[in-house]
Amino acid sequence: MKQAPLGIVASRPAAGDSLRFIADFQLVSFVDSFMSLGAAFVLGTIIGAERQYRQRTAGLRTNVLVAVGAAAFADLATRVGTSQDAMRVVANVVTGVGFLGAGVIMKEGLNIRGLNTAATLWCSAAVGSCTGTDMLAEAVLITFIIVAGNTILRPLAAFIDRIPINERLSEITYEVRVSTTPAAAAVVRDLLNDILDAAKYPAADLDTEDQPGDGVDIVARLVSTAVNRAELDDVVERLGHVPDVTHATWEITTQN
């Protein structure tokens, strides 16, 4: 029989430590957690399936993981802490998912994509938080509203987008956009400002935007919120005949 070297005391784990899992295991609590996480998985799948079908950046797996993760944190806080602890954990889940949602938002020129997908991820976390705190009925209700918002409201949103803008009732901004070369940008910028002043449509500000290739756009945002379209057409036509101007147009942008 081998002896332990001098100065070294052989130790063995106590029998109670190896059986601590069994001693602490509670079947009722385990079943409760299983139901919470299982419900988060199912409801997250329903939400993510619609996103996956539409080929969004955050699809089936992402929404399921967000829902299950939120449910796991909420369930853990509920089991080992107080209701105040659970609320603090849920608040941090909301913050963490907010950073995750920011990763799916992309800016392409003047357009921003991914806002709806990021909002759906945020709502998936709400579903998981509800299941983790044993609010299964509320989680089902939220899931129904999320799916309805992403499906039923799409035709309504498309219909509203096709309605012509009522310039008298909407808060809008008029912009005149002129494309030119970098070398002539300063001259064209001053000429644009002079032409707008002569037409009684002064610019609130002038911005220069770099474009792909060798070109820049000079954008003038008008002070006026109500204009005569024919007069703006005349301004654009005059700008189109200016040397070094490759393109001139005007457009309407809405304000939130």
Automatic annotation (TrEMBL):
Residues 174-250 form the MgtC-like C-terminal domain. Keywords: Cell inner membrane, Cell membrane, Membrane, Transmembrane, Transmembrane helix. InterPro entries: MgtC-like_C, MgtC/SapB/SrpB/YhiD_fam, MgtC_SapB_SrpB_YhiD_N. It is a multi-pass membrane protein. Virulence factor required for growth in low Mg(2+) medium and for intramacrophage survival. May be involved in regulating membrane potential by activating Na(+)/K(+)-ATPase. Belongs to the MgtC/SapB family. This is Protein MgtC.
